[in-house]
Amino acid sequence: MARPAGASPIFAWRPWPQAALEVVGNPIMPFDPEMLADQLNRASLDLVMLSSDNLLEISSVLGQVQAMAANVGDLPDPGPAQTVEALTELLRDIIRDKLPDRDLALGLVGEGLSLLQDLARRLAVGQASDGEVQSFLAKINEVLAAAQAQPSLTSLGPATEPIEGPAEKEAAAANPAGQGDDQASPAKSLKSSPFRPRKISSRSEVIVPTPTLVRREAYLSQKLTVDYFKADFTAALEDLQMKLVTVEHKTDPVVAMSETLPMFRTILGGVSLLDLDELAKLTADIIGLLDYVSTEQVSHSAAITDILLKACTFLIEGLATLTLNPDGRSWAFAPAWSEVELANLKEMLWDARQGMLVNDITNKVVTSSLGGASTAKPKKLGEILVEKGLISQNDLGGLIQAQKSVRAIRLGEILLQEGLITEDELNQALERQKGPDNGRRLGEILVSMGCLEHEHVEEALKLQEGFKETKLGEILLKKKIGAPEKVAAALREQKLSEVGGGQQAATVNTVKVETQKLDGLIDLVGELVITQSLVTSNASIKILKEQKIIKDLAQVSRITSELQRNAMSLRMVQISQTFRKMNRLVRDLAHKFEKDVEFSSQGEETEIDRNMVESIYDPLVHMIRNSLDHGLEPPQERVAAGKHPKGLLTLKAYHQGGNVVIELSDDGRGLNREKAVAKALERGLIQSGEGLSPQAIHNLVFLPGFSTKDQVTDISGRGVGMDVVRKSIETLRGKVDFSSEPGQGSTITIRLPLTLAIIDGMIVRVGDFRYILPTISINESFRPKPEEYFTVRNQGEMIKVRDTLLPLVRLSRIVRATGATSDPASGLVVVVENEGQRCCLLVDEVLGKQEVVIKSLGEALKYVRTLAGGTILGDGQVGLILDVSGLFEARELSLGGALPSRTDDWEMSDESWN
Amino acid sequence: MSGDQQHNPATALAVDHSLDMKVLRFELAGEFYGLDILKIREINGMMDITSVPQTPQFMRGLINLRGKVIPVIDLRLKFGLPEEAYTERTSIIVIEFKTVTGPTQMGIVVDRVSEVITINKADIEPPPDFGTSLKSDYIKGMAKTKTQVLIILDIDLILTDEDLTFGPKTVVAEEQP
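Predict the joint structure of the above. Result:
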């Protein structure tokens, strides 16, 4: 095993144990196409949702792109790797603020991502990349070169150090003044204060950027500096530590853990930007472990929290040693921890991933909690800390004092820290409070003095409230007393002692069960249902006329179906949690877009498959962003249109016909149909706008590369938009519809199957075989007339469905079924749709419609692209579920190879169609 | 202990019983094969098999094993032996093996299953380079018993062979003591 190049001399990168290499994905693993597709989707979503002045969000995209670099590095075809490398370079320069037109550059990033998506598709069918990569590289080179005023960037080799290059030296010479400004700016002074306002907002939400981060005035003026990274990332890490510490107090620790993931990804992007390889690798390991925990491959335990906390401490310590060199453009980094310590930590992270972590802390807590259970009163955290010898009684006194003083923090201090008022103004106001304005509140006085706006006071008051809730644990962490993992252990103990104190009722009404066990139960129940129906339909039982037997059998079938319903419901959770997050998102975004929005949600109690909850989050966020940005008008425009200035955004969930429906509607301006058609024409997405029905125009929204915005704004309009939403919904076997009434508003409707485990299918027969087609991808089915059949040169066979010619795919050829009809007129065509493409599938007959439980076909058959899974049919036999996108691929392959032979006796009438 | 080793008193003294292993003996085209019973989950008679498109011929298809869908391969076809009609002695041996995603089951079709016997690992000789019709990679060794020679199969290798999964290998290699 070769040591990866580029390890710093301070501590060498330790090679992974051989076993780990083979089992778990890691930087040197072979190419994984599914992972790449996943990474691409994630990156596009991130890109769509970022705002161009938010560096943290951009570095999160950078993190994603770098993850791809590890994946595509091993490919024989250099195309994807080069593209990824170029994107990395571009993103770095965007973050370093070297490019004059950031939006243009972000557009390029979007272009690069779609290029990669394209390459990935071609890789899957074994085609190599072509000239597109080169032309894209040239484009990026041009942008980078223009920005750097360098003659040309001949090669996109490994990232150039920011110290090198003449342009940077010039910038460095020009910069010292700017650097000084940064130090003195109010934003800076905020960062150095121990209790900054961002603390409060980021406590409950990870994905939504913190207010300080999106505050334009703080950032637009601020160049990317080491200090910025140090301060912000250390703060972010401390927040993360705080979150991890409280993870176990949440009802669902796994969800709480996975909520920290995006922030860690952002940190990964940031540290790799500064070329801090060690920190980047450590962060990557943390993310790896969190991934395993959030996908429940490893069950969450206290030991895992501890190891994560420890890793965070390492990161913070590492960042603390980061210093800016006197030249102002380069930096030094020399962490104090030894190589051995780091190696141990990494090993622990890997062990934890394999579920092999043995940690004494867990055991200790359990034993001491047994002792603690007898004491009836819940203990205070301080007592526990003193008992454990973590802090002395004196320290505790001091800490409680500190806690009190924090809680009593004054409005004036906050306003000062926020940089909203100067010290002079504060003193003046305090004077007036004592004198003429006696009895009035400080905030009122300041407003009347014209020093600040009313809303600022409210904001500050909110912050003050927040401080009042400061917990002892937070202070401990802030003051760096006691290692975070120890504080976590103490908090855990506190919780256990609460439970011992007689509050079990609230905590023991849930049981955590491995999903595997649950699936096993559901399998068996399904089997029971089948056996039960076999028994009841047995001929020799059916002839029995005895009343008792008939009654008992009816009872059995009632119980089995009840049992099945119950087993299925074990997988369901309420959608309320997701909705609540959206509520918050709307509030933040409305503020950002300067729109007045009233958000209402209905049907929060609607249940949805547990596995789906996470997957619908990103699409929902994107839809809401879209509605707020494109849909709802600014208040003035609304008033002009005779509407209430407050826009209405409604999120609804309900069950309908075996589906979960999620509906997002706004009462905004709606889709401008003429403009939509014009844009689609301009971008070459459609050939002609003639005779498009309103529905067809609405569907344009879902085309890749479509955007109605005239200008690329900072949040949307980059063209990687609703198609991403549609793709993510389709992977859940759901459907998205868009409808809009000009001037009245738009509605996006998502239809999802009730559960991922059950699929509504049509059973079709082809020859001697039966297959199941997911109903959701079926448009219609009919028996074609001979005159509706055509063969088109180089296109193969076609069926005319109303006014459109759709390609005919003979299912029997793809699955090599024998005994199938070759005459379309004696068979049946089923029109299936996938990602906007349609085709006609020729089958012999449709046997019926049935809800079937999807079963995995296992490792051995996962490369059979035409199958989505298997199921057990009513007669106990295995049925195969077709994967419509796989069928499309199979058809393309057969077209790419040889055209289907024309063995049919059909009349060819293709000439009239060319 | 089985009489296989006791017929020679001189070696019987030297037999190290910690090396004993139990194998299931089965028959395939007139030859005897052995399979470590620790890998075997259960043995079934012939069942309804649903064939799967776009798979090699030896991939017979899928069976319903009490609500689980399990792929089944025909060992005769996999080893390139002539195909024969299934009889009532034809059996499906369900094997359990580990993959990255957890334990997985797969069935293999054999002509007939005879018995479980104990063999000593010391009696297993490395596979010959020639003389059998199958790739010697699949053979762990040849075990001599009193009456016959058993071909001990490395079933993990067979079930995770690349031409079976049509993709990269996925099995977690088990440690051999």
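Chain B touches chain A through 34 residues (CB under 8 Å).
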